[in-house]
Inverse folding.
């Protein structure tokens, strides 16, 4: 008579499949299986072992994702959702937004201080960093976005920016 | 087995990231358990779960409704875990699956030499699973952890139901042999 875990009982292999399937609630040939089990200790032992093994999985069935994953999973997924919009579109939008901010700051500064020196002995004012950024954006081909967003006199502004030396230090203190 | 609300599924397929919340709520734990069973380490399961849901968001538009959405997600998870294991093997030459290291991670056992003395049930189970062929581990994890029917497993793996049946039986035979050799598992009467 075979032992419950006898690996050499190949003749029983089809019946062990039936034992396994019946344990899982799948339809099997009950009559053939009953007849075989009645005369096979090995397969009856296998039937008991299958049930015992399944109980071993209780520890894993009870396992759940960490609170950290539950908390972090969705934000990362949402970030990926943004990524699906496409890096090019996001980059273009960001550039346009930066340009709009740069123009806003730039115009405020221009309004408060002219770009050309008021007297010949005074040094030309530097281009503020934000305006330099706008010039760079214009050179990168996003001036259209800047123009649409700000509805600005683009040609005049950019021409004025290009005539100034961007390497000069920041705008000096405003003379009162 | 719970499924995502059809409206939420349509939103997900349209690429709405907010629909992921519903998707994660329904399938998150299942994906994580499946990944844990296949990869063996909770931290790997965490990463894989995140990556699977990013993939779900990206690929949900391709789901044609020929199977349950859970079956489709099972397939995505299985494929992702397979790729992850293959990449790990290619990058550092270690075993095809990291389950050999799972015991140390899960129950704090410091290494293989001490494994004989591990006490944690989950760690012992990982050790047993490590002894299975990958195709056997897949069907066993889908059946035992997810309660998937043979038909659902067959759909997830794109194999015939008969193949599922034989792989499960072989997996259980193997585990019985390993369990008897290593763990002196007390036998119990059939649960069903």
């Amino acid at each position: 008579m075979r032992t419950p875990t006898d690996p050499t009982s190949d003749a029983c292999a089809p019946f062990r499949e039936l034992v396994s399937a019946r344990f899982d609630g799948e339809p099997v040939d009950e009559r053939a299986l009953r007849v075989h089990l009645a005369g096979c200790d090995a397969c009856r032992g296998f039937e008991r072992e299958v049930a015992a093994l399944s109980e071993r999985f209780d520890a894993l069935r009870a396992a759940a994702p960490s609170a950290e994953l539950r908390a972090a999973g969705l934000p990362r997924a949402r970030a990926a959702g943004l990524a699906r919009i496409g890096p090019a579109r996001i980059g273009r939008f960001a550039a346009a937004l930066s340009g709009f901010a740069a123009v806003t700051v730039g115009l405020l500064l221009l309004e408060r201080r002219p770009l050309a020196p008021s007297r010949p002995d005074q040094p030309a004012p530097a281009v503020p960093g934000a305006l330099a950024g706008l010039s760079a954006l214009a050179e990168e081909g996003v001036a259209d976005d800047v123009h649409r967003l700000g509805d600005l006199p683009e040609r005049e502004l950019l021409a004025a920016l290009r005539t100034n030396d961007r390497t000069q230090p920041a705008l000096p203190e405003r003379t009162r | 087995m719970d499924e995502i609300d059809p409206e939420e599924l349509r939103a997900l397929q349209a690429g709405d990231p907010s629909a992921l919340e519903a998707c994660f709520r329904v399938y998150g734990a299942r994906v994580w358990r499946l990944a844990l069973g296949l990869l063996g380490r909770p931290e790997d399961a965490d990463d894989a779960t995140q990556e699977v849901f990013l993939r779900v968001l990206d690929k949900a538009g391709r789901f044609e409704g020929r199977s349950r959405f859970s079956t489709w997600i099972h397939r995505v998870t299985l494929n992702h875990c397979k790729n992850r294991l293959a990449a790990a093997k290619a990058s550092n030459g270690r075993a095809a699956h990291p389950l050999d290291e799972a015991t140390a991670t899960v129950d704090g056992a410091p290494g293989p030499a001490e494994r004989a003395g591990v006490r944690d049930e989950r760690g012992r189970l990982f050790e047993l699973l490590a002894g299975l062929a990958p195709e056997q581990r897949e069907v066993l994890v889908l059946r035992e952890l997810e309660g998937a029917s043979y038909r659902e497993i067959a759909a997830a793996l794109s194999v015939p139901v008969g193949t599922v049946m034989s792989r499960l039986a072989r997996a259980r035979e193997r585990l019985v042999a390993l369990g008897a050799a290593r763990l002196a598992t007390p036998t119990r009467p059939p649960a069903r």
